[in-house]
Design a protein that fits this description.
Blueprint lengths: L1 H26 L8 H8 L7
Length: about 50
């Protein structure tokens, strides 16, 4: 049981790290990130934009 919990938390931490790196890339306005202006030009409905 303890081994299962350790594996669970390691995998959860890795997933959170990947999501954090993805968020940092978007926040830094890297060329690979989607531009907010492109989203407003019709690719996404206004309801989904924050």
């Amino acid at each position: 049981m303890k081994k299962t919990k350790i594996i669970y938390w390691i995998l959860t931490g890795l997933l959170a790290g990947v999501m954090l790196m993805s968020a940092i890339t978007s926040i830094m306005c890297a060329p690979s990130a989607v531009d907010l202006q492109e989203l407003r030009n019709g690719l996404m409905p206004d309801l989904l934009l924050i």
